[in-house]
Design brief:
heterodimer; A: about 110 residues; mainly beta; 4-stranded antiparallel beta sheet; 11 strands; globular; B: about 110 residues; 6-stranded mixed beta sheet; 5-stranded antiparallel beta sheet
Chain lengths: ~110, ~110
Protein backbone atom coordinates (compact mmCIF):
# COMPACT_ATOMS: atom_id res chain seq x y z
CA UNK A 1 0.00 0.00 0.00
CA UNK A 2 1.60 3.25 -1.20
CA UNK A 3 -0.56 5.52 0.96
CA UNK A 4 -2.03 7.21 -2.12
CA UNK A 5 -5.75 6.66 -2.59
CA UNK A 6 -7.79 7.06 -5.75
CA UNK A 7 -11.53 6.91 -6.28
CA UNK A 8 -13.40 5.44 -7.96
CA UNK A 9 -11.57 2.22 -8.92
CA UNK A 10 -13.67 1.74 -12.02
CA UNK A 11 -15.78 4.12 -14.05
CA UNK A 12 -17.92 3.29 -17.05
CA UNK A 13 -19.53 6.11 -18.95
CA UNK A 14 -20.67 7.17 -22.40
CA UNK A 15 -19.09 9.36 -25.03
CA UNK A 16 -19.74 13.05 -24.52
CA UNK A 17 -20.03 12.73 -20.76
CA UNK A 18 -17.93 14.32 -18.03
CA UNK A 19 -16.28 12.54 -15.11
CA UNK A 20 -14.18 13.48 -12.09
CA UNK A 21 -11.38 11.35 -10.71
CA UNK A 22 -10.17 11.92 -7.19
CA UNK A 23 -6.78 11.45 -5.58
CA UNK A 24 -5.55 11.80 -2.00
CA UNK A 25 -1.77 11.97 -1.67
CA UNK A 26 0.37 10.39 1.01
CA UNK A 27 0.45 12.28 4.26
CA UNK A 28 3.10 14.98 4.01
CA UNK A 29 3.40 14.92 0.22
CA UNK A 30 2.79 18.27 -1.44
CA UNK A 31 3.06 17.24 -5.10
CA UNK A 32 0.38 15.37 -7.01
CA UNK A 33 0.94 14.04 -10.52
CA UNK A 34 -1.60 12.65 -12.97
CA UNK A 35 -0.74 10.04 -15.58
CA UNK A 36 -2.68 8.28 -18.31
CA UNK A 37 -1.87 4.69 -19.25
CA UNK A 38 -3.66 3.27 -22.27
CA UNK A 39 -3.71 -0.45 -23.01
CA UNK A 40 -0.17 -1.73 -23.47
CA UNK A 41 1.14 1.81 -23.41
CA UNK A 42 3.56 3.65 -21.23
CA UNK A 43 2.79 6.31 -18.70
CA UNK A 44 1.80 9.62 -20.25
CA UNK A 45 2.36 12.51 -17.88
CA UNK A 46 -0.63 14.84 -17.80
CA UNK A 47 -0.08 17.45 -15.12
CA UNK A 48 1.54 18.17 -11.75
CA UNK A 49 0.36 20.29 -8.85
CA UNK A 50 2.49 21.39 -5.95
CA UNK A 51 0.87 22.79 -2.82
CA UNK A 52 -2.18 23.94 -4.74
CA UNK A 53 -0.40 25.47 -7.71
CA UNK A 54 0.08 24.01 -11.18
CA UNK A 55 3.75 23.09 -11.45
CA UNK A 56 4.25 21.27 -14.74
CA UNK A 57 2.14 20.34 -17.71
CA UNK A 58 2.48 17.38 -20.02
CA UNK A 59 0.31 16.09 -22.82
CA UNK A 60 -2.96 17.08 -21.26
CA UNK A 61 -5.87 17.70 -23.61
CA UNK A 62 -7.87 20.91 -23.38
CA UNK A 63 -10.93 18.79 -22.51
CA UNK A 64 -9.10 17.72 -19.35
CA UNK A 65 -8.47 19.89 -16.32
CA UNK A 66 -7.23 19.36 -12.80
CA UNK A 67 -6.91 21.15 -9.52
CA UNK A 68 -5.41 20.63 -6.10
CA UNK A 69 -7.38 21.72 -3.09
CA UNK A 70 -6.15 23.26 0.20
CA UNK A 71 -6.25 19.84 1.88
CA UNK A 72 -3.92 18.70 -0.96
CA UNK A 73 -6.28 16.22 -2.53
CA UNK A 74 -6.58 16.56 -6.28
CA UNK A 75 -9.25 16.04 -8.88
CA UNK A 76 -8.88 15.34 -12.58
CA UNK A 77 -11.87 16.39 -14.67
CA UNK A 78 -12.39 14.79 -18.06
CA UNK A 79 -15.10 16.23 -20.29
CA UNK A 80 -16.60 15.57 -23.74
CA UNK A 81 -15.31 12.04 -23.37
CA UNK A 82 -14.26 10.08 -26.42
CA UNK A 83 -13.69 6.37 -26.90
CA UNK A 84 -9.96 7.01 -26.99
CA UNK A 85 -10.02 8.38 -23.46
CA UNK A 86 -10.55 4.86 -22.13
CA UNK A 87 -7.47 4.17 -20.05
CA UNK A 88 -6.04 3.68 -16.60
CA UNK A 89 -5.50 7.00 -14.84
CA UNK A 90 -2.87 7.04 -12.12
CA UNK A 91 -2.20 9.66 -9.55
CA UNK A 92 1.16 9.82 -7.81
CA UNK A 93 2.47 11.96 -5.00
CA UNK A 94 5.85 13.08 -3.76
CA UNK A 95 7.33 15.47 -1.25
CA UNK A 96 9.27 17.74 -3.59
CA UNK A 97 8.18 19.98 -6.44
CA UNK A 98 11.01 19.22 -8.84
CA UNK A 99 10.71 15.49 -9.55
CA UNK A 100 13.93 14.59 -7.79
CA UNK A 101 12.36 12.25 -5.28
CA UNK A 102 10.31 9.08 -5.34
CA UNK A 103 6.80 9.19 -6.73
CA UNK A 104 4.29 6.99 -4.94
CA UNK A 105 1.50 5.78 -7.18
CA UNK A 106 -2.10 5.13 -6.29
CA UNK A 107 -3.96 2.02 -7.47
CA UNK A 108 -5.45 3.87 -10.43
CA UNK A 109 -8.90 4.52 -11.83
CA UNK A 110 -9.91 2.46 -14.84
CA UNK A 111 -12.08 4.56 -17.13
CA UNK A 112 -14.12 2.89 -19.84
CA UNK A 113 -15.91 5.09 -22.36
CA UNK A 114 -18.62 3.32 -24.34
CA UNK B 1 10.65 17.85 -26.54
CA UNK B 2 12.45 15.47 -24.25
CA UNK B 3 11.93 11.79 -25.07
CA UNK B 4 12.89 8.67 -23.17
CA UNK B 5 12.93 5.43 -25.09
CA UNK B 6 13.37 1.91 -23.79
CA UNK B 7 14.38 -1.26 -25.56
CA UNK B 8 13.30 -3.92 -25.93
CA UNK B 9 9.55 -3.34 -25.77
CA UNK B 10 8.96 -6.99 -24.80
CA UNK B 11 11.24 -9.73 -23.53
CA UNK B 12 10.35 -13.35 -22.88
CA UNK B 13 12.91 -15.38 -20.95
CA UNK B 14 13.17 -18.80 -19.37
CA UNK B 15 13.42 -18.74 -15.60
CA UNK B 16 17.07 -18.55 -14.65
CA UNK B 17 18.13 -16.54 -17.71
CA UNK B 18 19.39 -12.98 -17.43
CA UNK B 19 17.47 -9.93 -18.61
CA UNK B 20 18.52 -6.40 -19.52
CA UNK B 21 16.48 -3.34 -20.46
CA UNK B 22 18.04 -0.17 -21.83
CA UNK B 23 16.84 3.38 -21.44
CA UNK B 24 17.92 6.26 -23.71
CA UNK B 25 17.13 9.93 -23.40
CA UNK B 26 17.28 12.57 -26.09
CA UNK B 27 18.65 15.03 -23.54
CA UNK B 28 20.98 14.96 -20.54
CA UNK B 29 19.22 13.92 -17.36
CA UNK B 30 19.74 15.22 -13.83
CA UNK B 31 18.66 11.87 -12.42
CA UNK B 32 17.01 8.65 -13.48
CA UNK B 33 14.54 6.50 -11.60
CA UNK B 34 13.37 2.96 -12.22
CA UNK B 35 9.89 1.63 -11.49
CA UNK B 36 8.28 -1.79 -11.75
CA UNK B 37 4.63 -2.37 -12.56
CA UNK B 38 3.27 -5.84 -11.94
CA UNK B 39 0.40 -7.00 -14.18
CA UNK B 40 -2.78 -5.29 -12.96
CA UNK B 41 -0.83 -3.17 -10.51
CA UNK B 42 0.60 0.30 -10.23
CA UNK B 43 4.20 1.45 -10.74
CA UNK B 44 6.41 0.98 -7.71
CA UNK B 45 9.68 2.83 -7.21
CA UNK B 46 12.81 0.68 -7.35
CA UNK B 47 15.80 3.01 -7.29
CA UNK B 48 17.20 6.42 -8.23
CA UNK B 49 20.58 7.14 -9.84
CA UNK B 50 22.07 10.60 -9.78
CA UNK B 51 25.79 10.51 -10.52
CA UNK B 52 27.43 9.99 -13.88
CA UNK B 53 28.57 6.37 -14.21
CA UNK B 54 26.76 5.34 -11.04
CA UNK B 55 26.09 1.64 -10.46
CA UNK B 56 23.71 0.35 -7.80
CA UNK B 57 22.69 -3.17 -6.91
CA UNK B 58 19.60 -4.58 -5.27
CA UNK B 59 20.03 -8.33 -4.82
CA UNK B 60 19.78 -9.70 -8.38
CA UNK B 61 19.10 -6.27 -9.94
CA UNK B 62 21.93 -4.03 -11.19
CA UNK B 63 21.25 -0.47 -12.28
CA UNK B 64 23.66 1.72 -14.24
CA UNK B 65 23.62 5.39 -15.20
CA UNK B 66 25.68 6.28 -18.25
CA UNK B 67 28.72 8.52 -18.16
CA UNK B 68 26.97 11.15 -20.27
CA UNK B 69 23.81 10.87 -18.13
CA UNK B 70 21.71 10.17 -21.20
CA UNK B 71 21.24 6.45 -20.82
CA UNK B 72 20.69 3.82 -18.19
CA UNK B 73 20.23 0.09 -17.90
CA UNK B 74 18.64 -2.44 -15.60
CA UNK B 75 20.06 -5.96 -15.53
CA UNK B 76 18.40 -8.86 -13.72
CA UNK B 77 20.52 -11.93 -13.05
CA UNK B 78 18.88 -15.35 -12.99
CA UNK B 79 15.29 -14.20 -13.47
CA UNK B 80 12.48 -15.60 -11.36
CA UNK B 81 8.75 -15.72 -12.05
CA UNK B 82 8.32 -12.95 -9.47
CA UNK B 83 10.26 -10.62 -11.80
CA UNK B 84 7.34 -10.57 -14.26
CA UNK B 85 6.07 -7.08 -15.00
CA UNK B 86 6.83 -3.91 -16.88
CA UNK B 87 9.95 -1.98 -16.02
CA UNK B 88 9.95 1.76 -16.59
CA UNK B 89 12.79 4.19 -16.42
CA UNK B 90 11.96 7.81 -15.69
CA UNK B 91 14.37 10.59 -16.43
CA UNK B 92 14.29 14.07 -15.09
CA UNK B 93 15.20 16.79 -17.56
CA UNK B 94 14.57 20.44 -16.87
CA UNK B 95 11.27 20.53 -15.07
CA UNK B 96 9.57 17.17 -15.00
CA UNK B 97 9.99 13.45 -14.89
CA UNK B 98 9.49 11.72 -18.23
CA UNK B 99 8.68 8.04 -18.16
CA UNK B 100 10.18 5.72 -20.71
CA UNK B 101 8.10 3.50 -22.92
CA UNK B 102 8.64 0.50 -20.66
CA UNK B 103 9.88 -3.07 -21.16
CA UNK B 104 7.47 -5.86 -20.45
CA UNK B 105 9.20 -8.92 -19.04
CA UNK B 106 7.62 -12.36 -19.17
CA UNK B 107 9.36 -15.23 -17.36
CA UNK B 108 8.49 -18.81 -18.22
CA UNK B 109 9.03 -21.45 -15.49
Amino acid sequence: DSGVTQTPKHLITATGQRVTLRCSPRSGDLSVYWYQQSLDQGLQFLIQYYNGEERAKGNILERFSAQQFPDLHSELNLSSLELGDSALYFCASSVSHDGTDTQYFGPGTRLTVL
Amino acid sequence: GQQVMQIPQYQHVQEGEDFTTYCNSSTTLSNIQWYKQRPGGHPVFLIQLVKSGEVKKQKRLTFQFGEAKKNSSLHITATQTTDVGTYFCAGRGTDKLIFGTGTRLQVFP
